[in-house]
Design a protein that fits this description.
mainly alpha, A middle domain of Talin 1, transmembrane helix, single chain, NaCa_Exmemb, two-stranded antiparallel sheet, Alkaline_pH_Ca-Antiporter
Length: 367
């Protein structure tokens, strides 16, 4: 029997937390803060993440799948791009690989981390989890193509020394990324929407939480506003915390590039929690929509934006992955294909993806 969850209810706390977080952001932005304030900001950051998840679920419950997953994926990615540009403007030469590290981390977190956690939660509770292989397979193919064009090709092209595109190559990658992402969105939301709906035990498409009362249109719009406020608070407070994160990374003897991984983990935390909640309700397709959509948006929206921003940013844009990262990306794509093609998965597939995610984290800390 499919578990059906009641529609999420918005209490006053879920509206107060984003506002308080934004006030704290305004009070701490651009200032040196002590350890006590760092701890307070960390708690507010966690609260903003939980608020973002709640409001995203309200919106998703109102509009249904796959639009609900798309709302959170695009909102998080747009603000993630803003964070990358901000850090590149203030980071100087050492920020040249920040975009690469953050985008690659986003792909590994979504395709291995979020997907693995979702499969593990779903399979532990329901045995074998089921999803639509046609929709998820198309999404995976899009992610693999975007990652190859934007993150692998700069390493092997000859126009510029090092892992960089020429201006013309970067323009092509930007247009190709945006075009492919737009084509996927049309496929997901218009032409083949049924490919991305949750499926029953027999494989028939379901409507998300079809037996729960959906929120009103007014409640959905209010939650959309608070979702955006929460996401701004998440990314802004992550930026405020970044000096403490950098100091902690250096003090722990980790490479500076690991900062990009930490930032990606923070920014994608709302989607991770939302995907886990969906898997707990036997809506693994929703979890996969979030995972693949986030990976796709992280590349398809980030690269075009950075291509335009690079006109004004003096820092070189080094997008090409190293040999270790290319190997991890290749095995991730192969394993994901084998996971997606049958349209069902068990704890074994979850364990494989989580092992790859652990390998990524370990090699990011000890390259």
């Amino acid at each position: 029997m499919t578990a059906v969850a009641a529609g999420p209810r918005t209490t006053l706390a879920w509206r107060v937390i984003p506002v308080v977080s934004l006030v704290a952001l305004a009070a701490t932005w651009g200032r040196d803060i002590g350890i006590v304030v760092v701890v307070v900001v960390a708690f507010l950051l966690a609260g903003a993440v939980l608020a973002a998840v709640h409001h995203a679920e309200v919106v998703a419950h109102r509009v249904g799948e796959p639009f609900g997953s798309l709302v959170l994926a695009v909102a998080v990615t747009v603000i993630e791009v803003s964070l990358i540009v901000t850090l590149m403007l203030s980071g100087g030469e050492k920020a040249a690989t920040l975009a690469r590290e953050t985008v690659f981390a986003a792909v590994m977190i979504t395709v291995n981390g979020i997907l693995g956690i979702s499969l593990l939660i779903g399979s532990r509770r329901f045995g074998t989890v089921r999803f639509n292989a046609e929709g998820t397979g198309g999404a995976l193919a899009t992610v693999a193509t975007l990652a190859t064009v934007c993150l692998v090709l700069p390493t092997v092209t000859l126009g510029e020394p090092g892992p960089e595109f020429t201006a013309g190559q970067l323009a092509f990658a930007a247009v190709a990324s945006l075009s492919l992402y737009a084509a996927f969105v049309v496929t997901q939301t218009v032409r083949h929407r049924d490919f991305f709906l949750p499926v029953s035990r027999k494989g028939a498409p379901l409507t998300e939480d079809e037996h729960a009362d959906p929120p009103t249109t007014r409640e959905a719009y209010v939650s959309l506003v608070f979702l955006l406020l929460s996401l701004v608070a998440v990314v802004g407070l992550a930026k405020v915390e970044s000096p403490a994160i950098e100091e902690g990374v250096v003090a722990a003897g980790l490479p500076v590039s690991f900062v990009g991984v930490v930032i990606a983990l923070l920014v994608l935390l709302p989607e991770t929690i939302a995907a886990a909640n969906a898997a707990r309700r036997d809506r693994v397709q929703t979890s996969l929509n979030l995972a693949m959509g986030s990976a796709m948006a992280s590349i398809g929206l980030t690269i075009p934006t950075l291509a335009v921003a690079s006109i004004w940013i003096p820092t070189p844009l080094k997008l090409g992955l190293g040999a270790t990262q290319i190997v991890l990306l290749a095995i991730t794509v192969v394993v994901a294909v084998l996971t997606v093609v049958p349209g069902r998965a068990t704890r074994l597939q979850a364990s494989v993806h989580l092992t790859l995610f652990a390998a990524f984290l370990f090699l990011a800390m000890s390259p």
